[in-house]
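Hey L., structure's done. Input below.
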Amino acid sequence: MSNVVNAEPYLYIDGYGETEQQATIDAKQQLALRIYSKVEVKEKNIQSKVNGDINTSYELQSEITTLPIEIQCMEISHVTCEYFTCQYQFKIDTNKWFASLKRDVAEYHNIASDYLSIAGQQWRDLKQLDTIKSNLLNSEQSLIILSSLGASDLFLLENKQSRLLRRATQYENQFQISFRSASDRFSSEVKTLLSASKAASSSGNITVYIKASMQKGKQGNHFVAKQTVVLQIFEANNLGVVVAQKQLSEMASSPNSIDSALKKARQKIIKILKTHSIYSLLD
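Output:
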């Protein structure tokens, strides 16, 4: 296990590996675990039937989440090698690191503040919202790192972070999107899925029209299908003009039938729609 020692103004962290690159990755992982770690434990119940008897077993699965850490002022202090593994001791100038993180936070705050001061209800405003939310997530993570390592003078930055997060959430809640679709089955299915977004409204500032199409054929002994979904974006004040368009296409094959291949292709698109926010989908 890597060790972390704080000897101001330096932070010393050990990393192990056959190469400097491996040791650097190990050291950063250990530092990330120290700063912030979230452990999720899931219990899996497995039942099997053998000769009429039902056997039940339990399995615990754990997952550790840490923060991404970028360190620009990390240098080697000492190296000790034994056989194929080396122990690298890295030295981090916390004054320089903290100053860099604070500059980044201040820059993210300035960008978010400028955006929220002039943001309207048009497509260009919605398009930039996902970037602003990503910037505020980055600044939140930087503040967690600074606080965990005992950095000083964080009150003003933390206060501004809270205010900007509230303003961004309030603005997001005010933005409304209407979803319309062609009459085919899959277009309607996509519309139903997207309409579950909290931004969905029957009379939104932005209207998204959903139109699906498919292509099918055969390649060798396999059936091949391509499913495409086009999202056309309109603004409420000019519904006759498409201001942006997003196209999602997925292909799949099946040895059984066209329907099976088409189902697989559609499942891929559904997965994309479920794992992305409406803002990133329309970007």
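Residues 1 and 168 are 40 Å apart (CA to CA). Strands lie at 4-7, 10-17, 37-50, 53-66, 74-82, 85-93, 177-181, 206-219, 222-235, 238-254.

-- N.
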